[in-house]
Amino acid sequence: MPASSQTAIKVATPVGTVFGQIVFGYLADRYGRKKMYGIELIIIIVTTIAQSMMSESRALNLVGVVVFWRFLMGVGVGGDYPLSAIITSEFATTKRRGAMIGSVFAMQGFGQFAATLVALIVTQTFRGSLEPSATPADCDSNCSLAADKMWRIVTGIGAVPGCLALYYRITIPETPRYTFDVARDVLKAERDVIAYMNGVTRPERGLDELQRLRDKDRNADELRVPRPSFADFRQHFGAWRNGRLLLGTSLSWFFLDIAFYGLGLNNSAVLHTIGFAGQENVFRMLQNTNVGTLIIICAGSIPGYWFTVMLVDTMGRKNLQLLGFTMLTIFFIIIGFAFNDLSRGAFLALYIMSQFFFNFGPNATTFIYPGELFPTRYRALAHGISAASGKLGAITALAFDPLRSRGANPDCKNSSACSPWLDNIMKIFALFMFCGLISTFLLPETAQRSLEDITVEHGSAVVALSTPKRHPLYRESSSTGMTSVIPPERSFWDWRRRSSQQSYRMRLFSADSRV
């Protein structure tokens, strides 16, 4: 296949993902999370099945059709980023919100394992057709037919989990925060809480949300929140205290994905370096690549995901992201400068630890952070913009792929020999990880804080009080010019027990405040 065709196929999905992340983020803020959550999954299912069934004809070029369907699949995949994070965030309890969002993200580790396992099984199934060919270039008709069947099977099976999840996405209730804060339908918000409470959580957790909504309803005539609009979006994020949050999440994700996807593009070269990509024949090449990938996923990626789930609410998002970027910077510097001196065992250990700290660090926290930092009316769009920045980093990583083979012998036979510049690429990735470390300092800590408290504290919520002094619980500060109100506690029962102490307060901007 020509290099231009390979590049087009590689770029199609991330470009579609960028488009889907921004468009579905906007639509989720405009029309609701529930509606868009089912639509984007339907797009993924349809395009995945279509890819596995397409064929070439005199009127259609196979590469062009592949690019078309992969772009559309990317649109659906892109929509899943903001919607999965935001729905989980807006339903989650404050105490375990990070773990809940992290567990949603961590499931992709099992997805990676399942996909590689399916590929390994399919490779074994077609062993007889693959073994006679020494290299992919030597594939005879039987080998080519087997390869064609293999990629269609592996791709088509990817639609099965989506079909199983479709029912639950269609029947999930709208998040009460969206219904109240954006749609401004308090009665429906209360019904959404009850539906969620009866379906997937214990009643006492639902009482917390229900009491909050009733308390908001009681004061709705005194609270005014701007409606989402382009002018309000520009004014809101034009303020540095708000814009720096979006800048921080976007830059962190961008720098991360340059290295994360850059390593993915060089996976075959890395696996050959650590001894998992022998090329006796096409079958051995595919089998060893799949086995090596499974080992890395099981030893590094999956543990990293679930360590994040266990510790993100105690360590905090910021500390975890700083730790991850720091360790990745160190590992990539070691690999880059000692590339030719490392033993296979040392290289394998460093690479597995890199995969661990990708996921026990910025790969997870860049997904969690945007679901918490922004006001409800722009939460999905801001998450989509942050995620799209990451995918732009993935597209940027494609530029490093040609550098990998710089100075290579045209007659090289394996991925390692054809990648003489891989050590320098690792040094470049170390620089990007350091940039990600710096960008993390733009972000605040969000652990153990409610979404409302986070958005108000960092200037991400505009709540104007028409007559603040009329309410018996409003407090005015002469030093800050701000007004505070005592809301319900995290638990309804804690609120009843401690309401007399009036210890839990949420700051609200007075009528003449502007963000």
Automatic annotation (TrEMBL):
Keyword Transmembrane appears in the UniProt entry: yes
GO MF term list: transmembrane transporter activity
Cellular component, GO annotation: membrane
Subcellular localization, as worded in the UniProt entry: Membrane
Domain Major facilitator superfamily (MFS) profile: from-to ranges: 1-448
Highest taxon in the source lineage: Eukaryota
InterPro entries: MFS_dom, MFS_sugar_transport-like, MFS_trans_sf, Sugar_transporter_CS
Protein name: Major facilitator superfamily (MFS) profile domain-containing protein
Organism ancestry: Eukaryota, Fungi, Dikarya, Ascomycota, Pezizomycotina
